[in-house]
Design goal:
Chain lengths: 154, 124
């Protein structure tokens, strides 16, 4: 398994290296997404138990945005897998940019939960967990984008 | 009697989230943060089911599963292997390692619960 910092498409240059990289990246991105979706579903259960419809609506929006992120991750991996050796990663860069916007959207929605009733049901650590998972997702996206831009330059 | 599930997951957030969601469904949850701890807790506590992340530090879920299925005392404990890779062929690989079922991250909780209930039901 390649480490997080070894995209080096020029170095791998072959399909197997790219496939392995795509596989690793999918794992890296899906792990924080799992936390975002899981915590938002957990909070949704709690909101529904307390008949807190305002929080429930925001949490449904988070779940929906999370599913959009899932689609973007799949598109990113498809894009990486389908570009041949030496091809520029324009498609992947576009998807990474969209991923960044989607992640910021979830982060904003999570912050909004602090102004709803759910914040008083001892859910602050869970809201924070969603934000942290978003930050992680954002950091991976930004990191990969920089790496691809660097590769393009070289 | 509460059913015991051993959750083997190294990612702290995902572990906490799954731990609490399963606990809310009435399961008695124990956890381990790597394959070695998972192996030790499975042998010691003999849970009704193990939820095993396959990508673990120290000893990965693949090897931990092989060892548990090779032990007389633990081989009948159902194991659900979980990965975030979700590539074609992963399911077959996870089942070949000895897992009784397989799921992917992000986890669809209702689907996971169904798998847990099916496997624990068979055991009972």
């Amino acid at each position: 398994m390649k480490t997080e910092s070894t995209i080096d498409p020029a170095g791998c240059g072959v399909d197997s290296g790219r496939l392995e990289y795509a596989r690793h990246l999918r794992h890296e991105l899906r792990t924080p997404l799992n936390a975002i979706l899981g915590y938002s579903e957990l909070l949704l259960e709690i909101a529904e138990e307390h008949h807190d419809t305002k929080s429930a609506r925001t949490l449904e929006d988070i779940a929906s945005a999370g599913k959009q992120i899932m689609t973007l991750i799949d598109r990113l991996i498809d894009s990486l897998n389908s570009s041949g050796p030496g091809q520029l990663e324009a498609g992947s860069l576009r998807v990474l940019e969209e991923l960044r916007y989607a992640q910021l959207n979830v982060q904003e929605l999570a912050a909004r939960l602090r102004n709803t009733s759910i914040s008083v049901f001892e859910c602050e650590p869970d809201i924070r967990a969603i934000e942290l998972a978003c930050e992680k997702l954002g950091a991976i996206s930004a990191n990969e984008k920089n790496r691809l831009v660097e590769y393009e330059r070289n | 009697m509460m059913m015991k599930i051993l959750l083997v997951e190294d990612n702290e957030m995902n572990r906490d989230m799954l731990f609490r969601r399963l606990q809310r469904k009435g399961y008695d949850i124990d956890y381990a943060v790597d394959g070695v701890e998972g192996l030790a807790k499975a042998i010691k506590n003999l849970p009704n089911l193990i939820l095993m992340d396959m990508n673990l530090p120290i000893l990965d879920g693949w090897e931990a599963t092989r060892r548990l299925k090779g032990e007389v005392t633990t081989r009948s404990i159902p194991i659900i292997g979980v990965t975030a890779h979700a590539m074609s062929g992963d399911r077959e690989k996870v089942l070949a390692a000895g897992c009784d079922d397989y799921d992917t991250k992000p986890i669809e909780f209702a689907r996971l619960l169904e798998k847990i209930q099916n496997l624990i039901g068979k055991q009972v």
